[in-house]
Amino acid sequence: MNVAKRRINAWLFIAPSLILTLVFGVYPITWALKYMFYDYQGFGEPLFIGLDNFSRLMRDKEFWQSVVNTFIYAGGKLVVTLPLSFVLGIILNQALKGRQLLRAVYFLPTVVSASVMAIVFYVIFNSYNGMVNQLLMGAGIISSPIDWLGSKYALLTAIIIAIWGAIGNYMLLFIAGLQNIPDDLYEAASLDGAGAFRKMWSITIPMLGPVLQMIIMLAITISLKGYESIMVLTEGGPYGRTQVMYLYLYKLFFPVTSGGASIQQFGYGSAVGFATAVIVGIVTLIYFYVSRKLNDVY
Amino acid sequence: MLNRLEAAPPAAAARSLRSRKWASRIVLWAFLLIVAAFALFPLTLAFFGSLKSNLELTTGSSLLPKEWKLSNYAEAWNTANFARFTWNSVFVSVFTTIGTLLVGTMAAYAVARVDFPGKKLYVLIQSGTLFISIGAVVLRPQFDLMVALGLQKTLWAVIIILISGHATAFFMLIGFVRAIPKELDEAAYIDGCSFRGVYFRVILPLLTPALGITALWTFRGAWNEYILPLVFTMTQPALQTLTVGLASLKYGVGDAAQPQLMLAGACLSILPMIVLYVLANKSFMQMAAGSVKG
């Protein structure tokens, strides 16, 4: 078959993919890039207002509080998830009886929907009649019920749910990375008399470098973007204590029953969307700069 | 440490070494079992809770139900409309998976096999959609587009938008297509196959294992999707999927909150994924691991 004909065929084969991506993926972004300069609430004529949405954004305390909450939420999740799943990955990469079963158990939470799990946690962590408090009190560990979804602990509960859903996934990513390290490096080190910690520090971590860098980047961006389970669990409440930035953004477009804006604000929402994407981008760039050493190939 | 061991009589040294090995093994297994308990506790509580009566669930303090109320499931299925939700979830997930596989394999085949003008730009756009996220903002123009197409009151709106997010599947599939030797294509061309013929008779049959993995990945994503079906079924309760219908129970069916029904509904919506996972947990893990190597 001649080259020209094959090219035409190739174009026909990517056409469905390209059309879908341009219409439902690229166009909505250009839509937001336009309306972030407009005052537009979904009805009436959109009014061009230049950078007004951005100056409002700078003064929007609720937004900046949600940014702070996002960092606490993502930070809390990562500080536990990454070391724990790394250790699990190291352990379950070794010959160990029951290794397959344990991997399967740890990975199980990742097949369950975040929103469904949020409902389950909502019921079992309920303060006055939830099963977690009942069991803890029944076992005599606590004497009065803990208000898991109240303003003091709600963010912590949200973080626990996030950790629960993430550990298995990162464990598996670490295992995949560890399997790429050749065994003879460890054998050579053993011959030279290296102990377990020495091997970890001088072989595992440097050899895992680029993969480690990628896994952590993935973990950071995913945890900054997550809001589904919080939306179902608390809707950002009480008093905005669990409001993360992507949830705040959602509420500007689809006002929910309690808390947050009560009218749709498409223009301002587009500006907030742009700002959140920029914040995630900046964090990613800072991370790449800080972690550049990991990418040195030994 | 070493000196002390050497100084000790051989039998005692061996014994202390053995007991240290045992101690570290106990610590290791304690750690592994605690994490396993953490992974399983919400699902276990949800399962046993879903079989308790409302009264026992809200006041009892034992893990196992005193009276096993299977009727919770019947009630969720019939009165709380879970039969409807399940059908909607199946509908969305099946068509999203078929569509994603079709669109994704066609594009992966073309990009892997042909150097056509604009290929780099196409791949750039695809990877761009993976990295740029402006969150819920896109839902608004997507909704307007569906209104223009007259589909906003059907689940096809959800399905089409989910299929449009096929970039991950595309990048997974392209690696698998590249692994198929090009000589097979050439042999098929010599036998008189067309470009389309090669896709159907050579590429798709050889992709079967990859199709399975990608299908699982896509199916899981569609089954667990919450925000998109929520937005498109806000005014259409009859079209709600399991995730949306379940979350709406939070606001009560009728007068009182019914936690036992929420848990029964949660178990109903988790069950199909658990069954799939038990049958194919290797493939699930493979696809997660593949994203690092790629």
Write the layout of secondary structure elements.
The complex is a heterodimer of chains A (298) and B (294).
Chain A: H1 3-35, E1 38-39, E2 47-48, H2 52-59, H3 61-92, H4 99-107, H5 114-124, H6 131-138, H7 154-178, H8 183-191, H9 196-225, H10 228-233, H11 245-253, H12 266-290
Antiparallel strand pairs in A: 1-2
Helix pairs in contact in A: 1-12, 2-12, 3-7, 3-9, 3-11, 4-7, 7-9, 9-12, 11-12
Chain B: H1 2-7, H2 10-49, H3 54-59, H4 71-78, H5 82-113, H6 119-131, H7 139-149, H8 156-164, H9 167-178, H10 182-190, H11 195-224, H12 227-232, H13 242-248, H14 259-293
Helix pairs in contact in B: 2-14, 4-14, 5-8, 5-9, 5-11, 5-13, 9-11, 10-11, 11-14, 13-14
In short:
The complex is a heterodimer of chains A (298) and B (294). Chain A is mostly helical.
Number of strands of chain B: 0
Contiguous runs where pLDDT drops below 50 for at least 5 residues of chain A: none
> Which shape of chain B, going by the Cα principal axes?
flat
Helicity of chain A, in percent? Answer: 55-70%
**Number of E-state strands of chain A:** 2
CATH class of chain A: Mainly Alpha
Between the first and last Cα atoms of chain A, what is the distance in angstroms? 46 Å
Largest interface: A-B, 91 and 98 residues
Provide the CATH architecture of the largest domain in chain B: Orthogonal Bundle
Strand content of chain B: under 5%
Give the CATH superfamily of chain A.
MetI-like
Under the CATH scheme, which architecture of chain A would be assigned?
A: Orthogonal Bundle
Order of helices and strands of chain A: HEEHHHHHHHHHHH
Number of helices of chain A: 12
How many independent structural domains of chain B?
A: 2
Mean pLDDT of chain A: 89
Q: What is the rounded Rg of chain B?
A: 26 Å
H/E element order of chain B: HHHHHHHHHHHHHH
Compute the number of helices of chain B.
14
